[in-house]
């Protein structure tokens, strides 16, 4: 079959690879119908999470059709349309039973890397390097989904592939980001990063009760899309002093909750950015935390900072004093896909959330490398490229 | 806790552990063979299984499931009411074979001993309730023979048997909690056979040991 493979830092190519097979009772094989790029892939492609091997198949946000089931699979049949959470979860450990699926104890067969790095190993993630289990990803004609009964969900009738595909990752991530904020109604929420994740976080915050959502980015087209589709206020950080603007927009209080949906390749204007880049490329820090710093500084006293942008290692100049003295709540994590997907599918089916507009660039799999280039450089209004094998 | 169920339960855990550890010890032996000296090394590891003690026990009382869990690693024979003989093979080949004598020691405790294997070892498995209803702690203690030469060769930390023990406990936990031990080794990739082999080595490193 054809698959989009990582061939070294910054290099992608479509290759002929063997087809996956059922390996365990709970496995299902899915024929991929749509597979999206994600901001997390950029961190992998660019070598910021150094656990990729040449030939690894990328992709973890996808939907498709079940073509084979292991003997233990109960909930799915050949021919079913399913959407699959990016996070692999066994369904039987304490973390899974308490719906903290991205912390599953049993789904990363290669836990040593992350145990050394982080003290414990979280769940495996499909197509997400050898730190996350070494699973083959979804930018391919077929993919093996372990624990199919736990990780795959039937797609409601009538919802197109290029919409439901985001229930795999961007939507549950955005929802969890908003969920972390503990909204009770009427809050002002600021969101850093107007990518797919940030936009879904903004919509989720509204549905969970936020009165105003303010979105921060530097790409005018992304901000405009968010304003139009989600109804957010916007700040362009390349033109405006973000902290100043947020303080004014909230009459001095600061946002009640700040969501960070940017991640470790955070960009900045000004001298600290150069400093961060130099340190990061010298591997003195692995992550550039510009937007996290800003979120902490901007947040109102006693507010919540919710981080879903991905960080891998160490950061520098983390304003711990601000967080401590303002008594902030910090929440963060990889998303618990399986906890949110059924609810999100209902909301897609009822039209409450329509993520389809994120799929700005549907492309054949063969053009995967170009899809990533458009996405990475945010060219041509690209929010997400969705590959069709 | 001295009913048949308990015995099978502990037997299961112990067999998997004995076999796994035996394998790690045997492998080290293949690579670099230190002289046998007096003295034991002791390694203690534990893993928390999210099931009550009875369920951990129950898992192994199913003889069929037990056989499946150790399939490819070992065969079990009952010697008498309180002891079993486990014959294990090195699944990596090499014709190594060793026998573990497994004895029920009391409520919630089993011991194993390998005398005619590549490296003599003995171990103990104990099941303890975890706090906060968090399931069961499987605690294992492994002792193996070693001495000054091992220390000289840098084996002082007892790395391999320790890794083996951790590996095995992780497998046991996974089998009980979700019925399988996940494996991605044969997932498709765009690698040449040579690259795949190199990647398998990396995988092996990242799979070996692990917490617990
Ligand atoms: N926690 C999870 O489970 C999870 C799941 C999916 C994605 N993610 C992470 O979420 C992040 C966003 O993903 P995405 O797919 O939306 O990526 P994306 O690249 O489409 O969007 C990131 C956006 O952040 C903007 N940005 C960069 N620096 C900024 C700054 N200093 N201030 C404000 N905005 C800034 C960029 O211009 C871009 O529009 C990534 O780090 C990704 O790894 C996390
Ligand atoms: Zn993602
Ligand atoms: Zn689990």
From TrEMBL, chain A:
InterPro entries: ADH-like_C, ADH-like_N, ADH_Zn_CS, GroES-like_sf, NAD(P)-bd_dom_sf
Named cofactor requirement(s): Zn(2+)
A Pfam family per the record: ADH_N
CDD domains, alphabetized: FDH_like_1
Taxonomic superkingdom: Bacteria
Domain Alcohol dehydrogenase-like C-terminal: 196-264
Domain Alcohol dehydrogenase-like N-terminal: 25-150
GO molecular function: oxidoreductase activity; zinc ion binding
The entry's keywords: Metal-binding, Oxidoreductase, Zinc
Family: Belongs to the zinc-containing alcohol dehydrogenase family.
Protein name per its UniProtKB record: Glutathione-dependent formaldehyde dehydrogenase
From TrEMBL, chain B:
Basic and acidic residues composition-biased segments: 197-206
Keywords: Membrane, Transmembrane, Transmembrane helix
InterPro entries for this protein: START-like_dom_sf
Region Disordered: start-end pairs: 183-212
Protein name stated in the entry: Cyclase
Signal peptide: none
Gene3D superfamilies xref list: 3.30.530.20
Alphabetized SUPFAM superfamilies for the sequence: Bet v1-like (SSF55961)
Species for this entry: Micromonospora acroterricola
The keyword Protein transport is annotated on this UniProt entry: no
Transmembrane segments: 6-26
């Amino acid at each position: 079959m054809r698959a989009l493979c990582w061939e070294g830092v910054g290099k992608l190519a479509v290759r002929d690879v063997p087809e996956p097979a059922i390996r365990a009772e709970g496995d299902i094989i899915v024929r991929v119908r749509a597979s999206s790029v994600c901001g997390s892939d950029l961190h992998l492609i660019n070598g910021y999470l150094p656990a990729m091997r040449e030939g690894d198949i990328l992709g973890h946000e996808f939907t498709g059709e079940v073509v084979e089931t292991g003997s233990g699979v109960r909930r799915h049949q050949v021919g079913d349309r399913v959407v699959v959470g990016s996070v692999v979860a066994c369904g039987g450990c304490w973390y899974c039973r308490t719906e903290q699926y991205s912390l599953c104890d049993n789904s990363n067969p290669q836990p040593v890397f992350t145990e050394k790095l982080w003290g414990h190993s979280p769940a495996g993630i499909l197509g997400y390097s050898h730190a996350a289990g070494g699973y083959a990803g979804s930018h391919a004609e077929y993919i093996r989904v372990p624990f199919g009964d736990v990780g795959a969900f039937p797609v409601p009738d009538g919802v197109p592939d290029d919409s439901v595909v985001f229930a795999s990752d961007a939507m549950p991530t955005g929802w969890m980001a908003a969920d972390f904020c503990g909204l009770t109604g009427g809050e002002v929420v600021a969101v850093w990063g107007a990518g797919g994740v940030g936009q879904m976080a903004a919509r989720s915050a509204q549905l969970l009760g936020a009165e105003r959502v303010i979105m921060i980015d530097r790409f005018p087209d992304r901000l405009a899309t968010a304003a139009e589709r989600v109804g957010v206020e916007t700040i362009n950080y390349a033109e405006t002093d973000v902290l100043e603007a947020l303080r004014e927009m909230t009459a001095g209080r600061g946002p009640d909750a700040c969501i960070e949906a940017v991640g470790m390749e955070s960009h900045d204007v000004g001298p600290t950015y150069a400093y961060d880049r130099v340190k990061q490329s010298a591997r003195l820090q692995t992550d550039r935390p510009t937007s996290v710093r800003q979120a902490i500084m901007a947040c109102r006293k006693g507010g919540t900072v919710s981080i879903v942008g991905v960080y891998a290692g160490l950061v520098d100049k983390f304003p711990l004093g601000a967080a401590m003295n303002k008594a902030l709540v910090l929440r963060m994590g990889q998303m618990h896909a399986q906890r949110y997907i059924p609810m999100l599918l209902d909301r897609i089916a009822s039209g409450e959330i329509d993520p389809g507009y994120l799929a700005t660039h549907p492309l054949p799999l063969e053009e995967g490398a170009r899809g990533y280039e458009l996405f990475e450089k945010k060219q041509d209004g690209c929010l997400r490229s969705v590959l069709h094998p | 806790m001295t009913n048949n169920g308990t015995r099978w339960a502990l037997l299961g855990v112990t067999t998997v552990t004995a076999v796994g550890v035996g394998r790690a010890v045997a492998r080290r032996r293949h690579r670099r063979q230190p002289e046998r000296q007096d003295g034991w090394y002791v390694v203690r590891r534990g893993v928390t299984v999210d099931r009550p003690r009875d369920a951990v026990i129950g898992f192994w009382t199913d003889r069929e499931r037990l056989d499946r869990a150790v399939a490819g690693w070992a065969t079990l024979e009952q010697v008498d009411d309180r002891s079993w003989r486990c014959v294990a093979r090195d699944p990596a080949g090499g014709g190594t074979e060793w026998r573990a004598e497994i004895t029920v020691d009391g409520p919630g405790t089993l011991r194993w001993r390998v005398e005619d294997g590549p490296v003599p070892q003995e171990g103990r498995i104990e099941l303890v309730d975890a706090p906060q209803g968090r399931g069961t702690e499987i605690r294992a203690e492994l002792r193996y023979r070693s001495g000054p030469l091992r220390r000289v060769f840098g084996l002082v930390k007892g790395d391999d048997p320790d890794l083996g023990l951790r590996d095995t406990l992780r497998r046991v936990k996974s089998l009980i909690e979700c019925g399988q031990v996940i494996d991605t080794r044969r997932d498709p990739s765009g690698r040449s056979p040579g690259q795949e082999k190199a990647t398998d080595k990396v995988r092996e490193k990242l799979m070996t040991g692990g917490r617990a």
